[in-house]
């Protein structure tokens, strides 16, 4: 980390304890992070590509379990991660290790491509003490980072979901990619994407079936389990969620542009609503990954 040329000359100030995550307000960004047992939480600012850590700021608190801070001069596009200080007592369920950069659980935009590495673990793999060991390597260069999203500019149509009586609901469960991958009349560039669900060919298909509500299989940001990655396989269904507030980039037409990806998802919702279609997402605790205490699924 280099502070020779700090990106922000102003210090972190006390902020608001809600909403959670990073929110643009006034002339800066407010951070709010919940942790019941952390002793200190730092916000680490990175360059635009998320490769180099530039500065660190300690948040204030906790107040009712929330650490908070306001960074003057910060704006949308800021790339950051979190480091949590606290007890390292795996036997008690506490695995705080500030050497490990953490992703903000409320991130709406995520930067980077995840790859399983030994540096991500709080303990040292294959150590005789197992999870009781303590890994001091910094995973910052390899960890996913959050990017501050701009102020919400969502059209009213996005929120105006159609109203249907319970007796009239017809649910259609689908996987975004699988549904449109081979659909007749779908432009090649849109196949398997959020935009494909909003395409006239898809809308006509839903109306022809009399569908009122789309039940989407997981569309949140997910990562592949290490057992799958080791076999060069992927979690097609997306039940290994990492970021509940960020769309899965695998189903976006511009997967390397977090802002465009979010806009595409919102446009999909707006178009569905405009055509009398509601949507929800499917989640099943019985099909989510089962991990051991070592964090391996």
CATH fold category name of the largest domain: Immunoglobulin-like
Fraction of residues in helix:
10-25%
Note the quaternary state here. Answer: single chain
Name of the CATH homologous superfamily of the largest domain: Immunoglobulins
How many β strands by DSSP?
16
Q: Architecture of the largest domain, according to CATH?
A: Sandwich
- In CATH, what is the class of the largest domain? Mainly Beta
Average pLDDT reading: 90
Sheet bearing the most strands, described?
Answer: 5 strands, antiparallel
User: How many H/I helical runs?
Assistant: 6
Structure classification = alpha+beta
H/E element string?
EEEEEEEEEEEHEHHHEEHEHE
Number of domains: 2
Residue fraction in strands: 15-25%
Head-to-tail CA distance between termini: 33 Å
- Spatial order of the strands forming the largest sheet: 4-3-7-11-10
Which segments are poorly predicted (pLDDT under 50) over 5 or more consecutive residues?
none
Could you say which overall geometry the principal axes of the C-alpha atoms support?
A: globular
Rg for CA atoms: 21 Å
